[in-house]
Amino acid sequence: MTESTLFDSPIGYIEITCSSNGVSQVYLGARNHSFSAVQPASSLLRESIKQVTEYLAGERKAFDIPIDWSDIKDFQHEVLHKACDIPFGKVLTYGQIAKMLGKPAASRAVGAALGRNPMPILIPCHRVVAANGALTGYSAAEGIKTKAWLLNLEEHTIVGQKLA
Questions:
Q1: DSSP states of 76-106 as a string?
Q2: What is the spatial distance between Cα 99 and Cα 95, in angstroms, rounded to a whole number?
Q3: Angle between the 74-84 and 107-115 helix axes, to the nearest 10 degrees?
Q4: Active-site residue 84, yes or no?
Q5: Which of 80, 125, 135, 151 is catalytic?
Q6: What phi, psi does 114 have (nearest 5°)?
Q7: pLDDT per residue over 34-56, tens digit each?
Q8: What is the pLDDT of residues 82-139, one digit of tens each?
Q9: How many other CB atoms are there within 10 angstroms of residue 14's CB atom?
Q10: Are 7 and 37 within 8 A, CB to CB?
């Protein structure tokens, strides 16, 4: 059984979907803007909204809600787990993650895996940047603009789509 809800946030509409195993999708820039605010039935979905809202308000630095990993396989699973290990306010490069996985030539594959992240914010792919500090490869919501907003929230300075 899955349940979804849509809510407005400082970065636009966000849709969160939960399964019985945990959060299975976070969609930034939700497709359907005609909705009525309805209190979600599941406590997990209500807690997910609460924690994401707190994060976006600068009141939360880590999430403690379960993630449903069942549709994430193999290399992408490894990459997304590494992204989850990046603490609030820190960044890694695609190459650093590739090296951590024992695949130093796989930085582009790391980028591709992060680009298919089904749960941005909860799995903080915005904390991964190019080797030169450029804010590349963010496909959620308004792309690089949203990535810059999230990194600014985490006290990074961005100049010209690059970490300063």
A1: HHHHHHHHHTSPTT--EEHHHHHHHTT-TT-
A2: 6
A3: 80
A4: no
A5: 125
A6: -70, -35
A7: 555 566 778 999 999 999 999 99
A8: 999 999 999 999 999 999 999 999 999 999 999 999 999 999 999 999 999 999 989 8
A9: 25
A10: yes
